[in-house]
């Protein structure tokens, strides 16, 4: 019964749409809306089968009283993912965009819903949007609006569209950024709920535009861009939402070395540190996280590290050691790890900081937060690898960090395994006496035996494991364990390894094992 009624209505609609008899069209549209309300998917399929979508553009006439209903039908149909491409193919986008000029609230509401649903979560329809002039149209419309509701509705259509990189660039070229900056300027001191909402939407959208490489680079303009300058001025703002957007924007601008070097040279670090200082006490977690993300990215180029260390970045970052928020802990660890890479003096200072090492060891046990756990292990290893200092090694031994580095050597990530083995080699080389007990307790020797016996271990893992075996031979209890595990068999097999460095180290290790057996 359901589908017969619907088919009849669709047939009528086909006839009626040609002679534009409004009354009969209206009743057919009502019937369609009813059917959609009753069984969404089935009704949509039927509409598609009977070829009704291509009739709708002519019905989307700004003068017609049917228009809101037609737009509503499109919005309902486009809730189904399989209907989104057909809506674009049926030519519905240009007439819908035109309707955004309407003054009728109902038409605007339904048109906004329809456009929003067509491009919601659908890659293909976004790609099709990219070949229309929707970016220009929407920006032009936005510039004309004065009412909050209409701006919000255009924002709702813009946000999903701006996820597509091609459209990001089109929106930037059409002047959306200038509109957003204006909205921010108008609403930043507003107390009304709608001001707060608009400020958030505009600044979030601004950050979204910076996620595209081309759009970001266009707005950076070699660091001279007025947009870049304006966004910088958000960081010292008194408004948390703007501080957040400013810090996120900097993190996005800091996606390549050239930008990072320029930004550090122009004093952005100071602004971010002042922002972080304001949030140690009144801790807004999202702002902390964003500012730390920006610092971490800025610390990637080697030339920036010493400049940032002299600016006191490490000291400010350490103020957040007490944070109980995993996202903040994660970024804090990443920032410190980036800063000390190749910086021996800084690694030495931080590595002998008992409080820091103690906290790292605690986070190495954060089973619920794999990210924090991994970063803590990596920082612990980095402090040793970059300082190569006996004092740091002692601080790590005293803090109980050795067993975590042994566990890290069994990680599923080769890069982490390797970082662990190099750090363990330095511990054994710099203070075997003090670390012997921990090595025995953490079954280091049997871990190394597994790594050497495992076919899947990468060449550098095998190489560093053998170096470590040689390094622990000077300890009597560890030497005994090496003997009891028949290492000679495993190592002599590796003499035939295809990697020359591995096979050479296998010969050396075999000689060492034979001499000391």
Could you describe the 3D structure shown?
This protein is mainly α and 517 residues long. It folds into three domains: 1-174, Leucine-rich Repeat Variant (Alpha Horseshoe); 219-342, Alpha Horseshoe (Leucine-rich Repeat Variant), CATH 1.25.10.10; 343-516, Leucine-rich Repeat Variant, CATH 1.25.10.10. 76% of the residues lie in helices and 0% in strands. The chain has helices at 2-19, 22-38, 40-49, 56-59, 67-77, 84-89, 93-99, 105-118, 123-130, 134-144, 148-161, 165-173, 176-187, 193-209, 213-220, 226-232, 240-253, 257-265, 268-281, 285-298, 302-310, 313-318, 326-340, 344-351, 354-363, 370-387, 390-399, 402-408, 414-441, 444-453, 459-472, 476-484, 487-493, 500-515. It is elongated and about 100 Å long. The model has no long low-confidence stretch (mean pLDDT 90).
């Amino acid at each position: 019964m359901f589908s017969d009624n619907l088919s009849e209505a669709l047939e009528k609609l086909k006839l009626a749409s040609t002679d534009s008899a409004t009354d009969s069209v209206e009743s057919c549209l009502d019937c369609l809306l009813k059917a959609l309300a009753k069984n969404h998917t089935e009704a949509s399929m039927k509409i598609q089968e009977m070829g009704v979508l291509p009739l709708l553009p002519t019905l989307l006439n700004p003068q017609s009283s049917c228009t809101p209903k037609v737009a509503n039908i499109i919005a309902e149909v486009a809730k189904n993912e399989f209907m989104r491409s057909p809506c674009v193919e049926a030519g519905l986008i240009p007439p819908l965009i035109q309707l955004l000029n309407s003054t009728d609230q109902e038409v605007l509401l339904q048109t906004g819903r329809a456009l929003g649903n067509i491009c919601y979560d659908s890659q293909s329809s976004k790609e099709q949007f990219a070949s229309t002039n929707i970016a220009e149209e929407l920006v032009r419309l936005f510039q004309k609006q004065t009412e909050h509701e209409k701006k919000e509705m255009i924002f709702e259509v813009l946000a999903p569209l701006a996820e597509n990189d091609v459209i990001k660039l089109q929106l930037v070229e059409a002047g959306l950024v200038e509109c957003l900056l204006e909205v921010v300027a108008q609403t930043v001191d507003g107390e009304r709920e709608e001001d707060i909402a608009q400020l958030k939407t505009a600044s979030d959208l601004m950050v979204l535009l910076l996620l595209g490489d081309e759009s970001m680079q266009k707005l950076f303009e070699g660091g001279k861009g007025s947009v870049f300058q304006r966004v910088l001025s958000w960081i010292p703002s008194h408004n948390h939402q703007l501080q957040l957007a400013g810090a996120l924007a900097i993190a996005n601008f800091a996606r390549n070395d050239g930008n990072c070097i320029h930004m550090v040279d122009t004093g952005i670090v100071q602004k971010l540190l002042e922002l972080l200082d304001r949030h140690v006490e009144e801790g807004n977690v999202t702002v902390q996280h964003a500012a730390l993300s920006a610092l971490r990215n800025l610390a990637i180029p080697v030339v920036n590290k010493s400049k940032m260390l002299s600016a006191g970045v490490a000291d400010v970052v350490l103020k957040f050691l007490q944070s109980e928020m995993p996202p903040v802990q994660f970024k804090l660890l990443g920032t410190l790890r980036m800063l000390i890479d190749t910086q021996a003096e800084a690694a030495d200072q931080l590595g002998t900081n008992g409080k820091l090492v103690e906290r790292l060891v605690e986070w190495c046990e954060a089973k619920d937060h794999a990210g924090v756990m991994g970063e803590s292990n990596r920082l612990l290893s980095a402090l040793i690898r970059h300082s190569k200092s006996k004092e740091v090694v002692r601080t790590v031994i005293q803090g109980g960090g050795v067993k975590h580095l042994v566990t890290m050597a069994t990680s599923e990530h080769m890069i982490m395994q390797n970082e662990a083995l190099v750090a363990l080699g330095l511990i054994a080389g710099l203070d075997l006496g003090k670390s012997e007990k921990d090595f025995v307790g953490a079954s280091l020797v049997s871990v190394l035996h597994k790594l050497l016996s495992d076919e899947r271990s990468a060449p550098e893992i095998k190489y560093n494991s053998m170096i470590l075996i040689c390094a622990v031979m000077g300890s009597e209890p560890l030497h005994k364990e090496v003997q009891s595990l028949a290492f000679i068999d495993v190592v002599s097999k590796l003499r035939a390894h295809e990697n020359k460095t591995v096979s050479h180290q296998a010969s050396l290790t075999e000689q060492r094992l034979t001499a000391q057996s």
